[in-house]
Amino acid sequence: MPVYNVATRRPLSYELRKETARCITDVHCGLTGAPSEFVNVIFMHGHKLKSGNALSVICNVRSGGNRNAELTEHLRLQILEGIASVTGIETDRIEARLLGFPASWAMEGGEILPEPGEEEAWLSRTHA
Amino acid sequence: MRKALIAVQAEQFSDAQIQTLDRLIHAHYAQHVSDEALLTIWNQLPKGQAFTDYKDSQSSMITLECPNGFAQEKRVRMLTALESDWRATTGQNPHEVMLALVEQDLFGTLFASNQQRLSWMGRLNLIVKMIKSIVRARLSGSPVSFNPNL
């Protein structure tokens, strides 16, 4: 968690997928403070997207903790612009949507995920 | 009918392992969550299409639907039990297995969002692919599984 699910009409090359995943991970961790090991990015192609969009990204992110609506919207916009910059697709042909849900509903590393902003203790426990 | 969405890396597990994992999901779901029917949908991600922590992913992501207001104590029991059995079957380390038990309203939003981003033709393609996968699964007695590229 988070899982960024990227759908495109046409396949992106492996290098472009990897670079897009790097960009998403950098933006996500830079803005939220989440560790990069939490960040998953999945690509799929052949999807006929609505409104002439060339790329759509949907992400489920942990809500609550140190995250407010402003931060979440800022994250969404930064992700959108980052993807546009890496792929060369115009921002108005990219759709980005973030869906928040409680950290306590998910488990990773054998433990329930920490609230946003409380990762440090969780990381030292699960990596002990 | 409740749903579970499972994303794994293609060719990471054998068909026999996937059958075992599917049985484990159903068994733990029935024991800890509900005796309602559960449709498991396996997405097998082709190599090079998933990344975790900047690298090619070896992770599995299991997202299950539960009723609204589901007790957290029961959720933790379910996820802990499934995680343990999952890793015993696959040999993955704990950080390669992500599980979530999501209440039905939000699960519905997540599930619908994948269709809402498609054009009507895209939705039709997705529905046809899903139906084909379900029919193939019923005929072969295996879990519903497909490559997410359309």
What Rg of chain A is obtained from the alpha carbons, in whole angstroms?
15 Å
Q: Number of helical runs of chain A?
A: 3
Most extensive interface between two protein chains, with residue counts: A-B, 44 and 44 residues
Q: Per the principal axes of the C-alpha atoms, what is the gross shape of chain A? A: elongated
Mean pLDDT over the full residue set of chain B: 96
The description of the largest β-sheet of chain B is: 5 strands, mixed
Helix % of chain B is 40-55%
Q: What structural class results from the helix and strand content of chain B?
A: alpha/beta
| Average pLDDT metric of chain A | 93
Structural class of chain A: alpha/beta
Beginning-to-end CA distance, first to last residue of chain B: 25 Å
Task: Write a brief structural summary.
The complex is a heterodimer of chains A (128) and B (150). Chain A is α/β, with parallel strands linked by helices.
